[in-house]
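Whether sequence alone determines local backbone shape is best considered at the level of individual chains. When preparing material for the folding task, we compiled for one chain both its residues and its backbone structure tokens. No coordinates are needed to read the tokens, only the vocabulary itself. For completeness, the protein is quoted in full, as a sequence line and a line of structure tokens:
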Amino acid sequence: MNWIQSILSVLKGVKDSTALFDYKRILQEVLVSILVSVLVWVILKPFKIEDDTNSRLLSIALTTQRKLDSLNFQEKLHKQQAQIDSLNRVIILHHENDSLRSNARLSKLDAIRAINKYITNSSKTEGRNQ
């Protein structure tokens, strides 16, 4: 309850020495702060860059960043595609070597039969897929 009385006495502007401030002092401080704000605004206004210039600079920066990001992505994509192609070549080479090894033990007639069987099976599979 004591703090409510303190607040009320401050708002009423009691003239004794315990009062923290009075209305005249508050009004003076508010006016001084407004004058200082206006003065700072008037002094700094000529030094500010126009908003249009800022928006153009931002647009240029964003466009440049988009192009850089695109180039970085294309470079990564190219490296990954090169690695995939290299691995595909290795897989094909391994398949060829496996085929040569498995056919090396066959006679010519057995090799021709195996080839015909493979061709027949792949043509049946293609017919089903279509």
About this structure: DSSP finds four helices and no strands in the chain. The chain has a mean pLDDT of 80.
